[in-house]
Amino acid sequence: MSGDGWSRSLDTDVPNIARVYDFFLGGKDNFAADRELAAQIAELAPDWVQACRDNRQFVGRAVAWAAGQGIRQFLDLGAGLPTHPAVHEVAGDIIPGPRVCYVDNDPVVVAHARALLTKPANVNVADVDLADPVSVLEHPGVTSIIDRSEPVCVLLAMVLHFYDPQTSRELAHGYASRLAPGSVLAISCGRNDDPDMWQQMRESYTAATTYNHTRDELRSFFGTCPLVPPGLALARSWRGGMAAVPERLPGPAYVLGGVGVKP
Predict the structure, then answer these.
(1) How many domains is the chain partitioned into structurally?
(2) What's the rounded Cα separation, in Å, for the pair 19 and 30?
(3) Do 174 and 133 form a contact (C-beta atoms < 8 A)?
(4) Is residue 3 in a domain?
(5) 30 part of a folded domain
(6) 188-247 pLDDT, tens per residue?
(7) 234 pairs with which residues across the strands?
(8) What is the pLDDT of residues 139-182, one digit of tens each?
(9) Strands 153-157, 184-192: parallel, antiparallel or unpaired by DSSP?
(10) Residue 198 maps to a domain
């Protein structure tokens, strides 16, 4: 997963964003430094642990929805460490032989993914920075899996809050504009409605550059792609093609998500 300010080395004494996220999801691929930072974040924003889990469930539902529409290709940008069920597992439960490419430029993630991911046919891990759509889409590790003449489901899950609003829009558009009509753009971002809590969380992220995108900003990342009902929603309540599941209001820290379809 990309993001300045986080360790991109294999030094297990320095916290790494992918391993912290892995810890929040109940994974085992993390170390003491990661767990220490995770504890600090959880203390500042107790809702954030559940928000990360809600996001992972959103990704699964978005992938399942796209596969149910007949999409057979998935590009997971800033994929992070392999998590069960992984994208290829979710899609594979719905369609035979989905083509999936996981993209990340963090050596920790790439090394773990290649070691941990038992790759079936048509699944690959590409070491390339998601911030350059052209380089990603032309990377041999991606082109060996993804055929851009056919629709693709692009996942930008919990990565765009590492980029300012303008850059986020340019990134999302950079991918969508180079894909076939009918392609899907699934985006989720963390959000915090408490300014003081947000600032403390931002500082705890070892000075990582992070942005607290508004709903309007997040909607703009989809450009002209119409949103699948219910549109932008809490990640935990998004259900493709259906109204959001009624529930209590969240705490100040939560995740918003949506899915758009290229006309």
Answers:
(1) 1
(2) 5
(3) yes
(4) no
(5) no
(6) 999 988 888 878 777 765 545 789 999 999 999 999 999 999 999 999 989 987 776 666
(7) 256
(8) 999 999 999 999 999 999 999 988 999 999 999 999 999 999 99
(9) parallel
(10) no
Q: Read out DSSP for 114-170?
A: HHH----TTEEEEE--TT-HHHHHH-HHHHTT--TTS--EEEEES-GGGS-HHHHHH
- The CATH number of residue 92's host domain is 3.40.50.150
List the alpha helices (DSSP H) in the chain: 17-24, 32-44, 47-68, 87-92, 107-116, 133-138, 140-143, 165-176, 195-204, 215-220
Contact 106, 82 (CB under 8 A): no
- Report residue 64 as tokens: 């399942």
Q: Which residue segment(s) compose the domain that 89 sits in?
A: 47-193+210-261
What is the reported pTM?
A: 0.86
Which of 41, 39, 37, 55 has the alpha carbon at shortest distance from 236? 55
Report if residue 216 sits inside a domain.
yes
Return the half-sphere exposure (C-beta side, CA atoms, 13 A cut-off) of residue 57.
14
Among 149, 98, 136, 147, smallest CA distance to 119 is for 98
| Alpha-carbon torsion (46, 47, 52, 54), positive or negative | positive
CA–CA separation, 6 and 2 (whole Å) = 9
What are the backbone dihedrals phi and psi of residue 256, each rounded to the nearest 5 degrees, phi first? -105, 145
